[in-house]
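User: Hey, my collaborator sent me this sequence without any context and asked if I could get a structure. I don't really work with proteins. Can you help?
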Amino acid sequence: MLTELGPNKTDLYGRIFLQIVLIAFVAYFIYVIVHPTGHHHYAKQLFKDKLWCGCALIANVVLFLKLYFTPYWVSIDDELKTLTVRYLIQPTRTIGLHDIAGYGTTAFKSKSVSYFGISIHLHQGKSIPLSDLNLGNYFPVELFLIDAKVKKLGQE
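Assistant: No problem. I've predicted the 3D structure and written it out in structure-token form, which is a compact way to encode the shape of the chain:
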């Protein structure tokens, strides 16, 4: 049986919208810096514009990396015993039970809200975080791992 877990649409669409807004801010400030319209006769204003452009550029890079590394879709195949993890930008990754070293429960903080989830640890030394923040509901993945008798780390 194939179980599909979709994204938390609020988180996904919010991050995409914020990415677009930050790209527009960076483009605007680069335009203002390159083509001054007369209000840059003060050195302070030019410095402020460069500072805002730098802050928007750094925020844009950080949010892009979060979009790149966060999985938003998971397919659970009970017959083949595989998890298919899909990202927004990265290629799809299919993980068999033989690739999983273990998993652990964890909590992810976003501002003042805690989201519970699991972190799947692979034999290659990588881990895949899945939580209520990015999936909406990670619990079917945890049930799949429990049914497959994957070792829960921290409970040896």
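In plain terms: Residues 43-69 form the longest helix (27 residues). You can pass these tokens on to your collaborator as they are.
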